[in-house]
Predict the 3D structure of the following.
Amino acid sequence: MAIKIIKRKELSFWDQTYLPMLFSGLWITSRHFFRNFFVQTLNLFGLAKHLKGSYTFQYPEVQRPLSKRARTRHRLTQREDGAPRCVACMMCETVCPARCINIVAKENPDPNIEKMPASFDLDLGMCVYCGFCVEVCPEDAIRMDTQILDIAAYSRKEMKLDMKELLNPTTAYPVKK
Amino acid sequence: MLVDFTIKLILAGAFLGMVLNLAGLLTWVERKQSAVMQDRIGANRAKIIFPKWLFPLNWLVWLPNELGLFHSLADAAKMFLKEDFVPRGADKFLHTLAPAISVIFALMAFAAIPFGDTLHLGNHVINLQVADVNAGILFVFAMLGLGVYGVILAGFASNNNYAYLGGMRAASQMLSYEITMGISILGVVITYGSLSLQEIVRAQGSVWGIFTQPLAFFLFMTAALAETKRVPFDLPEGESEIIGYFVEYSGMKFGMFFLTDLVETVLVACLMTTFFLGGWQVPFLQPDGFHWPGGSFVAISHGLVITLGVLAFLSKVLFFNWLFMAIRWTLPRFRYDQLMHLGWKILFPASLVNVLVTSIVVAWRG
Ligand code: SF4
Ligand code: SF4
């Protein structure tokens, strides 16, 4: 194995005095300061809206754009008639490392499909957002693409989602707004 | 006699009010300035919103609301409402005394700082300075030195080894840098030949101290920053990683330490202004009006001259506060050995050299 010698630059006298870096650092931060100060002041009075004085998203009012692949709150997909696609195969319940899915199966009235869930409970308070349930599902019945991030509640009970809420993600926020 | 007393009382009240308000405002400045520097918006959610039928008031608070100015108010309210906790085994008396010592001595140092020229009001001659101590520098340094006790006591009285170590760190840092601070200011004293702050400011009418004592300016600023225990010298506190002397403090007692920090920042800004930026001196302004370099002259009234002076003082202090905040949010913290190295091996000899050179020059010029 060849030995690679990394030459570190010796600090010159001026570097060692710390002063040039001090001033260039101050120059950079104050440049940002004055530019943003100016732009933010203009923006406050409704001027120069095309200039950006900060990269902040004012969160609850303005949502940050999420990647399409971001794992967010779960939902159950539906068939054309609105029934859940889930066939209650228990794969997700089995694979879930946090054991937060609880399915009770029942017979499906459709003779072509064997089973369907009678209840499908998911405890978001325990979920670790690993996405295994989505990957393991043979029916593409569960997805994590609702883009809902504000999952918070005042009690553990409110963190539990039942089938109705999972099928209809937009109606169900853990915290009622 | 009574009138003089009342005047002094008013002066003290006004100055104290200004300092405390400025310190309170600095909590907001600190957050907002760091935010703006880092391309953020900063705290803007503490708002006062009146009911609809009081809408003129809503217009009034619109700007402070948008700027997040009420955060300082919310901070203060939070401090007062929090539980005041004294740990088991701690000395309750000293634990309570420590923050009071810190803040009182920091505030007392302001007494010697002149914030304006002598005002002639009727037949009263008012020196715009709370206490015209003829050895003002010594007074200020004494107060700063006594402030160390608050920090050490806080470490001692908390019955917590981390707090104790923090107190020790603070004490050694403050003592080390106090020496540099004292010696670097000696150059100024020699140059102007006076220990009275008002005299020093008056002597800077033509040339500001920063031009006669440029080295002392940097030395004093560095040492003073270390003295106020702010970043990059915030090892005694180290809020983010290491544990400082006020770890066992909560509620308003912690608030007092926090306030001390900001009051000391204002104090150091005042001292820098007084020693190096000519205090209340406005460029080209003589007691009777502006003497512009071209020889032209604009006469203005006595009251206006004094007002301009006070405003100049205030704006210089604000400038230094801005600078200190900018430094605080620019530089990373020193390591402790680097801190001691800087203090004893660089700043201390440099300040000695400064004094030597200054004395030689002063002696040579007679
Ligand atoms: S994301 Fe992971 S932890 Fe959450 S329900 Fe699915 S499998 Fe369980
Ligand atoms: S893996 Fe899919 S089909 Fe199977 S129980 Fe879970 S959601 Fe239903």
